[in-house]
Specification:
Layout: H1 3-19, H2 25-31, H3 37-62, H4 68-82, H5 90-100, H6 105-110, H7 116-131, H8 134-140, H9 147-161, H10 171-194, H11 198-226
Helix pairs in contact: 1-11, 3-4, 3-5, 3-7, 3-11, 5-10, 7-11, 8-11, 9-10
Function: Ring cyclization and eight-electron oxidation of 3a-(2-amino-2-carboxyethyl)-4,5-dioxo-4,5,6,7,8,9-hexahydroquinoline-7,9-dicarboxylic-acid to PQQ.
Catalytic activity: 6-(2-amino-2-carboxyethyl)-7,8-dioxo-1,2,3,4,7,8-hexahydroquinoline-2,4-dicarboxylate + 3 O2 = pyrroloquinoline quinone + 2 H2O2 + 2 H2O + H(+)
EC number: 1.3.3.11
Length: about 250
């Protein structure tokens, strides 16, 4: 690997080291057991909106790809979330988490109670992938470089501190421990191969930075709405509502 290629990869990894959302106070609260049941529910509701839009984002990306090899490599991402024969899929696994925390899964799936800032941030990401260069779209996905660490911390923290946490409710995160490295290995190699000028490297780095902002903005919205001093926007989920039968 050339020095220039190594230096560019290190630049990308440094963006994650400085800006990935594992450093957000909401995640620190969640993983340490400091969230109330309703704060966990708010996180589940809002994060579902992001999860549900990932295959839509990937479909928008694939609709612009002319190279069959790239389409073949990318389409497994859609199946990972939507499911396929023998694979439940990430969206269904996330709804199992919604069941476990006592939410009405139909309400979660409707996205009716999603915070405005969550919706705007996630929709901006889908538009970004749809409208920018293929290089920028792939580079934005490289937050997966940093995801296995946060998934492992989340599994450990939730199991230690929350009664709802078990193998079934946390299956989304366990599956991503094997799915994410596969995706990112391909995506990173593709970006390193195609960002072959300083201008392209700058664009790829900016795309990854944008994606970290998308993730951070979602947690800012959660923290502002549901952690003291809580201020829930009109139309967003209100604690104590839309629970499944028997939820406390």
């Amino acid at each position: 690997m050339s020095f220039q290629r190594c230096a560019f990869e290190e630049r990308l990894r440094q963006i994650g080291a400085e800006r990935y959302h594992d450093k957000h106070p909401f995640h620190e609260l969640l993983h340490s057991g400091g969230c109330t049941p309703d704060q966990v529910r708010a996180w589940v509701i809002n994060r579902f909106y992001y999860q549900s839009r990932i295959p839509m984002k990937d479909a928008a990306f694939m609709s612009r790809v002319e190279d069959p090899a790239l389409r073949r490599a990318w389409r497994s991402r859609i199946e990972d979330h939507d499911g396929s024969d023998g694979n439940e899929g990430g969206i269904a696994r996330w709804l199992r988490l919604a069941d476990a925390v006592g939410l009405d899964r139909d309400y979660v799936a409707s996205a009716e109670g999603v915070l405005p800032a969550t919706r705007f941030a996630v929709d901006a990401y889908v538009r970004f992938v749809r409208d920018t260069s293929l290089l920028e779209a792939v580079a934005a996905s490289l937050t997966e470089l940093f995801a296995p660490k946060i998934h492992a911390s989340r599994i450990e923290g939730l199991l230690a501190h929350y009664a709802f946490a078990d193998d079934s409710s946390l299956s989304y995160f366990r599956n991503r421990l094997s799915e994410a490295p596969k995706d990112v290995a391909f995506g990173l190699a593709w970006v390193l191969d195609h960002a072959d000028t300083a201008e392209k490297q700058d664009a790829a780095a900016a795309a990854l930075t944008f994606k970290t902002d998308v993730l951070w903005a979602q947690l800012d919205a959660l923290h502002a709405a549901y952690v003291a001093p809580a201020h829930i926007p009109p139309g967003a989920w209100q604690p104590g509502t839309h629970l499944s039968g028997g939820a406390a």
